[in-house]
Amino acid sequence: MILVTGGAGFIGANFVLEWLNASDEPVLNLDKLTYAGNLGTLRSQQDNPRHVFVRADICDRATVDRLFAEHKPRAVLHFAAESHVDRSIHGPADFVQTNVVGTFTLLEAARSYWNTLNDADKAAFRFLHVSTDEVFGSLSATDPQFSETTPYAPNSPYSATKAGSDHLVRAYHHTYGLPVLTTNCSNNYGPYQFPEKLIPLMIANALAGKPLPVYGDGLNVRDWLYVGDHCVAIREVLARGTLGETYNVGGWNEKTNLDVVHTLCGLLDDLRPKASGSYRDQITFVKDRPGHDRRYAIDARKLERDLGWKPAETFETGLRKTVQWYLDNQDWVQNVMSGEYRNWVAKQYEA
Ligand code: NAD
Ligand code: DAU
C-alpha cells in the first residue's frame, strides 16, 4: 500500500480519490484534520476497504512508527502541511511545527522503517515530497520562469518552512541514501479547495453578494494548474522519477489576479446570472499582503521531456469545470465554512 499524508486536504484528497479510482493498491491516509482537512471530501470512500483513514499528527513519532510497522507501505506521498500564506503571516508557529518538524519526524520514521527492509524492498521504496514553487521567491515581469536549478529565496513564513522541508528531504537522500523525490508545483485550483484560497474564496463571496477582495493592484501573477493535472504529475514522478531529483510542475498559465477574478466573474455571469448587473461589480481593492511575491512562473520542461507529462486542462476548461463543481456542491462549501472559517475571514478581511 501507499501512505498518503494530508489526504483529507485539497490536493491530497484529490490524489487519494483518483488513486483509488485508477488502482487496486490500498491507501493509508494519515491526516490531523486541521481546519483544512475535511472527511466530507472522502465520504465516497468510507466503506471502501482499500482506504484506511487514521487521524494523526505527522509530528507524533510513536504513531507514525506504529503505522509504518503495521502497514508496511511501499511509498510515502507527503502532502500534509500548513499551506496558506496569509495564515503564515498571522501565525508562523504552526508552519514551523508541521512543515519543518513534521517533515523531519516523517523522514526519521521513514528512514528507520526503510532500514528494516530487505534489499529489494529498500530499492523499491519511495518518499515523494510534495512542495511548491514559492520556495524560489519572486520573479520580475521579464525574468525567466523557475527551473529546477533556480536558487531558493523564500519570502514568507510558509515558503521558508516549505524550503526547510525540501532541504531536509534532499539531505536524507544525500546523507542516508533514502530514495526521495520532490515536486515543486505552481498554484493549484479545482474541486475541494478550501475557500480561503483565491479562486474558491472569490466564488463563495460572489455567490454570497460579498466584496471580491483583490490585494494591492491585482497585478501579481500566478501560474495556474488544474489539481487533476498535478495529481497525474505526482503519479508519474512516483513511478518513473530519478531518485534524489526535483521536478517542477506547472501549467504554462500565467495570469494576473485581476485577470483570474474577471474570468471567474464572466463564468458566473454565464452559469449563474445575477438578477441585475455583473459579479464584476463586487470587485474591491483591499490592503496588500505583506511581502506579497509579484510573480511565480514554472518551467515544466524537465517533467515534459523526461516523463512525458503534459497538463490535460487549459485554464479555460479547468476553471469552467471548477466553477461548475462549486455551484453543484454548495453543501460541501457550507459545511467547511464553519465557525473557524468565519473567525479567519473576520481577522483577515474585516479588521
Ligand atoms: P491543504 O491546506 O488543503 O491541506 C493540508 C492537509 O494537511 C489538511 O488535510 C490538514 O488536515 C493536513 N495536516 C496539516 N497539518 C498536519 C499534521 N501536522 N499532521 C497531519 N496532517 C496535517 O493543502 P493543499 O493545498 O492540499 O496542499 C498540499 C501540499 O501541496 C502542501 O504540502 C502544499 O505545500 C503543497 N502545494 C500546494 C499548492 C496549492 O496551490 N494548493 C501548490 C503547490 C504545492
Ligand atoms: O504557488 C503555489 C502556492 O499557491 C502554494 O504553495 C500555496 O499552498 C497556495 O496557497 C498558493 O499560494 P498563493 O499565496 O499564491 O495563493 P492564494 O490563493 O492565497 O493567493 C493567490 C493570489 O491571489 C496571491 O497573489 C494573493 C491574491 N489574493 C488572495 C486572496 C486569498 C487576493 O488578491 N485576495 C485574496 O483574498
Please describe what this structure looks like.
With 351 residues, the chain is of the alpha/beta class. It has a domain at 2-189 and 227-250 and 291-312: Rossmann fold (3-Layer(aba) Sandwich). It contains 13 helices and twelve strands. The protein has helices at 10-22, 61-71, 85-90, 93-114, 119-124, 157-176, 198-207, 227-240, 257-271, 301-307, 315-328, 330-336, 339-350; strands at residues 2-5, 27-31, 51-55, 75-78, 126-132, 180-185, 187-189, 212-215, 221-226, 246-249, 254-256, 283-286. The longest helix is centred in the first third of the chain and has 22 residues, at 93-114. The radius of gyration is 20 Å and the shape is globular. 44% of the residues are buried. Residues 83-85, 132-134, 186-187, 197-198, 201, 213-215, 220, 222, 257, 289, 296 line the site of 2'deoxy-thymidine-5'-diphospho-alpha-D-glucose. 2'deoxy-thymidine-5'-diphospho-alpha-D-glucose binds at residues 83-85, 132-134, 186-187, 197-198, 201, 213-215, 220, 222, 257, 289, 296. This is dTDP-glucose 4,6-dehydratase. Its cofactor is NAD(+).
Query: Average pLDDT value?
Result: 97
Uncertain regions spanning at least 5 consecutive residues: none
Strand order of the largest sheet: 3-2-1-4-5-6-10
Cofactors, ions, other ligands: nicotinamide-adenine-dinucleotide, 2'deoxy-thymidine-5'-diphospho-alpha-D-glucose
CATH class of the domain at 2-189 and 227-250 and 291-312: Alpha Beta
- Determine the strand fraction and express it as a percent band: 15-25%
Taking all Cα atoms into account, the compactness measure Rg is: 20 Å
Shape: globular
Largest sheet: 7 strands, parallel
Q: What helical percentage do the residues reach?
A: 40-55%
What CATH architecture label of the domain at 2-189 and 227-250 and 291-312 applies? 3-Layer(aba) Sandwich
Count of individual beta strands:
12
CATH superfamily of the domain at 2-189 and 227-250 and 291-312: NAD(P)-binding Rossmann-like Domain
User: What's the tally of helices?
Assistant: 13
SSE arrangement, N to C: EHEEHEHHHEHEEHEEHEEHEHHHH
> Oligomeric state of the chains?
single chain
Distance between the termini: 47 Å
Structural class: alpha/beta
